[in-house]
């Protein structure tokens, strides 16, 4: 998934932090354009299957 603001590949964005929650893993990334994205990696079932759901927050 790419940044909504500049189109930069999200996987190459800098990882700010990662937190384990009841929903899965929440990962914060900062794009080269300054936008911060929140990536929720859901761990479904016993198999290792991560489904990233990314929400981009405009830079302040
Ligand atoms: Zn960007």
In words, what does this structure look like?
By secondary structure, this protein is mostly beta strands. It has one domain. Strands 1-2-3-4 form a 4-stranded antiparallel sheet, with no helix packed on it. The chain contains no helices and 4 strands. The protein has strands at residues 14-21, 24-30, 36-43, 50-57. The protein binds zinc ion.
Compose a concise summary of this entry.
This protein has 60 residues and is mainly beta.
State the domain count: 1
Give the rounded overall mean pLDDT. Answer: 80
User: What does the main sheet amount to?
Assistant: 4 strands, antiparallel
Q: Report the sheet-strand fraction.
A: over 45%
Bound molecules: zinc ion
Radius of gyration from CA coordinates: 12 Å
Q: Per the principal axes of the C-alpha atoms, what is the gross shape?
A: elongated
**Model regions low in confidence, pLDDT < 50 over at least 5 residues:** none
List the helices and strands and how they pair.
Elements: E1 14-21, E2 24-30, E3 36-43, E4 50-57
This protein binds zinc ion.
Main features:
60 residues, mainly beta, 4-stranded antiparallel beta sheet, 4 strands, 0% helix, 52% strand, binds zinc ion
């Amino acid at each position: 998934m790419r940044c909504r603001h500049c189109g930069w590949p999200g996987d190459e964005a800098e990882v700010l932090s990662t937190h384990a929650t009841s929903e899965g893993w929440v990962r914060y990334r900062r794009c080269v354009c300054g936008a911060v994205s929140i990536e929720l990696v859901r761990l479904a079932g016993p198999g290792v299957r991560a489904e990233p759901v990314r929400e981009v927050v405009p830079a302040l």
